[in-house]
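Hi V.,

You were right to ask for the full record rather than a summary. Here it is.
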Amino acid sequence: MSGDALRTPIAVVGLSCRLPGADDAEAFWRLLAEARSAVVEMPGDRLDRDLYFDERRGQRGRTYSTICGLVRPQHPWSGDESYDVCHRILADVAVEACRNSGMTREDLAARSVGVFVGHSGGSPAASDVTRATLAGQAYELLRGVAGVETERAARVIADATARLRRGKPQRASDGNPKSEARWAAELVARTLGLTGPNLVLDAACSSSLVALALGALALERGEVDVAIVGGASYAQSNSLILFSQAQSCSARGSRPFDDGADGLVGSEGYVAMVLKTEAQARRDGDAIAAVIRGIGLSTDGRGRHLWAPRKEGQTAAMTRAYGAGIDPAGVQYVEAHATSTQVGDATEIESMAEFFGPHLKGAKIPVGSVKSNIGHTLETAGLAGLLKVILAMKHGAVPPTINVEQPNHTIDWERVPFEVVRAMRPWARPDGGVRRGAVSAFGIGG
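Predicted structure:
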């Protein structure tokens, strides 16, 4: 999608979230405004330290980090319990976003409403079901390999199978446990009684903003009257181990733009927004939280390797977002992706400097990252950043990026047209006009 492709301004008319340290949008704003961190130790039921923790880096199948961002445990009410808990929480948040928009179930039923969710997978329920289901077969296979056919061996296998299955989720009565990623959007549609399209897409850490792009395009083309866009991520040991293998996560904390940044902090989170075209929102008399005027997508092409972002791909996305009629000089704040890795943060600032520099003519604009407060919410990261910008516009203030003690020395801060926001500052309306912000989200591999 290029900037020219989004010719129709899109209005955000409803929003809700469940993020680390915040059960709703106003609690999220208080977390940001008070410069607090929601990063905590991953509990034992998510990470078995005896099996997976090793403080040494580079140990196969181990993690050297035990920190993350978690939402407050709640029992989700949406859907039956055959659905993954991650998907049920997202459905709750989507219902709250619709309530925030002022739309009733009757309003939704009278329109074509699409659901577009950025998500790659639920909780570990699917793997737990698989293990519980196949445990007996696996043990029998081992017995066959060992050539043991005694009655005692059969009893041992039966006991081991029962022990492994104890406490694990079982198959739903229809034989189809609803744990695959696709059910996240389906449950939202089912809970709200929607009849429009629903889909889940996985674009790694840019998933939720790509979902927003598809929802905006569907609105522009008249394929839907209303789009519910969302992101859902669930923190689990798998991610810690994955990022530890690449030595790209931190055991200390999330420190975007800081000279001591040593990796990301994987977190969970849920955000949902209700979108209409701006024209339709005004006809309906909606309270408009923000208007989206440009969206740009890109990939890095043939890069050096999976973990090395390319400046060219990021610059291409910005060029496409600022199409005809959108002046980059009007941007007053940038919410960066900023994963808290030295190379990633430097590459992002360099690409933004290359794009914005010629338009800003020596001026500096503030830049920040919500990951300093809540960690990296993976698939939800883009919408979490967008929500932060919308709330900052509403309150007329830019909250600080915390944990920045000494700015990243590999970035020439005197030369680039950006400065990290390290204390709350007012966000005034320029010449009585409107506040304008930009948001970035990048996925692994570009």
